[in-house]
Amino acid sequence: MGRLLIVSNRVQAARLEDGSGNQGGLSVALSAALRESGGIWFGWSGDIAEHFSGGMHFEKENGITTVTVDLEARDVEEYYSGYANCTLWPLFHYRLDLARYDRMFANGYERVNERFAQTLVPLIEEGDLVWVNDYHLIPLGDQIRRLGRSNRLGFFLHIPWPPMRLLLSLPSHRQLVELLLAYDVVGFQAEDWLESFHDYLRVQLGLEKDEKNQIAWNGRTIQLVVCPVGLDSEDFKTIVRSGAAKAAYHSMVQSRADRSMIIGVDRLDHSKGVKERFCAFERLLATYPRLHEQLFLLQISPIARDDLGHYREIRSELEALSGRINGAYASPHWVPIRYVNQSYDRATLAGMYRAARVGLVTPLRDGMNIVAKEYVAAQDPDNPGVLVLSRFAGAAAQLDEALLVNPYSSEEVSEACLQALSMSKSERLRRWRLLNDVIEAQDTSWWWRTFIGFLDDAPESPLVRS
Ligand code: G6P
């Protein structure tokens, strides 16, 4: 196997036992790949320069070499906040109502991808495998080809791919899809997303995949792959057994007293369905007064992308909603929703997951959802809690022994919570063992090895331009 060059917008070499809370599944998973294979991780430094210079920062951190570049304020506004997070993110999460189409955003997206390609290309050696991650960087592969590199290029999308009819609302939809065809391997988190991509190819471009999920295009073959991101299961279990996790568990058990705790942990994002979750929890309280004072919901939602309007809106909606529900149901000794905007390290989260009878993971749409896997992995194997999981998370395809729900239906979600709270121990054990087996078998290392395996098998691309 050649050297691995990983590219992603954010470069965040993840430590094992540390975690800022911002350290999402992506950084953990990619760190694990690089730690084992060697190579370089390339992306944005997170810093802003007055003018883009292409100057690179080389660092070695936690056994991983990172190379980063600074961007201009205008780049960040148009490429990251604009096209990536105001256009593609809402559209790819099926939220046409929130998606903004702006020519400036599209230009900025193209410009930054070009800048990344120009900086990265001199670092690419013959035989290197280049693995580009996520929606910020779809055009990068095409840019690398334009600069004359024939290395094998892979792209993995960590978020959903939208249905064809939604994608048609993007002014440059065809261009975006064709850019993806510059890669040799294109990976998705779940079958549903690959199928949506294939629908587009079939209907709009007249391309059919064969039985190996390969597409023939301009004299090249593009391999489509479903490859769900896994949990760094062994490392996470070490975290679960750590003193810090145990301390967090004990303090949570003390604070919950003999009440049952339901936990939700999500970045504050409209795709996570936290508003709908609060409403479902309210319905549970309204329908079953006997549960009052017996349980509570701990919702941990670190604030994200707060400079964008629709993120500030969801934040104030959640503040109002949790306040209203607590006002209506709380007593002097009990608050039904503990709503927390702080972020916690993985050890503290592991302890809190373990203290919760129910893990409530109900995104309206999600590429994968690693919290669902962490909740399961953190449980006490002798007395596990129950995962209630949205059917619309990529994770649902693997975790079908969870209680699967439609997150838009407060009736379904509240009834699943009740079922989880009253589930017998034998049934909890049965479900947990099956879930845990999948999580351990299809872990982070399985994920990147599978993806890189496909990339390694792909032939080098002839330099033909469409
Ligand atoms: C989530 C998604 C990732 C994405 C990341 C970007 O974690 O699952 O696919 O790359 O958000 O987050 P950021 O904070 O960099 O906007």
CATH topology of the largest domain: Rossmann fold
The order of strands across the largest sheet is: 3-4-2-1-5-6-7-9-8
Number of distinct helices: 16
What Rg do the Cα atoms give?
A: 22 Å
Question: What do you see in this structure?
Answer:
The protein is an alpha/beta fold. It is built from 16 helices and 15 strands. The chain has two domains: 240 residues, Glycogen Phosphorylase B (Rossmann fold, 3-Layer(aba) Sandwich), CATH 3.40.50.2000; 209 residues, Glycogen Phosphorylase B (Rossmann fold). The strands form two sheets. It has a nine-stranded mixed β-sheet, with helices on both faces. A six-stranded parallel β-sheet has the order 12-11-10-13-14-15, sandwiched between helices. Strand 10, helix 10 and strand 11 form a beta-alpha-beta unit. Helix 1 packs across helix 16 and helix 9 packs across helix 12. About 2% of the residues have low confidence. Bound molecules: 6-O-phosphono-alpha-D-glucopyranose. The site of 6-O-phosphono-alpha-D-glucopyranose has 9 residues, from loops. Belongs to the glycosyltransferase 20 family. InterPro entries: Glyco_trans_20.
